[in-house]
Amino acid sequence: GKKSLRQKFVDELKHYYKGFHLLWTDTKVAARMVWRLLHGQVLTRRERRRLLRTCADLFRLVPFLVFVIVPFMELLLPVFLKLFPQMLPSTFETESKKEEKLKKKLNARLELAKFLRETIAEMAKRNKADTG
């Protein structure tokens, strides 16, 4: 059924609370990784990717906080998210946004594979014509 305005508001607050909590946890883990880097240890590829993602999320948090702090500015947040879809930190993404992003990435990969297959087939035809 439909949710009431109060329930939608509570759900949004929970979503942002969980997002900030995940970002705080990621930041603590990233701080430990930086500490390890400063003491000469080497990070794995997975740790490096997580560290980069967390740093990017912290930089994305600055413009996002402006919307949270300035009164009534959060009403403009959907407009800015439409203009700049990567503005939110990754911990604030909903499942539907993640699925949408994965679908776009999969479609792009399929198009690339189709292009490469056609290119290879065309090159094979040319080579066959040249040798034949």
From TrEMBL:
Membrane topology designation: Single-pass membrane protein
BP-aspect Gene Ontology terms: intracellular monoatomic cation homeostasis
Boundaries of every Letm1 RBD domain copy: 43-128
Superkingdom of the organism of origin: Eukaryota
Transmembrane segments: 58-81
Gene Ontology CC entries for this record: mitochondrial inner membrane
GO MF, any single term: ribosome binding
Subcellular location(s) of the protein: Mitochondrion inner membrane
Gene assigned in the entry: Letm1_0
Keywords, alphabetical: Membrane, Mitochondrion, Mitochondrion inner membrane, Transmembrane, Transmembrane helix
Name of the protein this chain belongs to: LETM1 protein
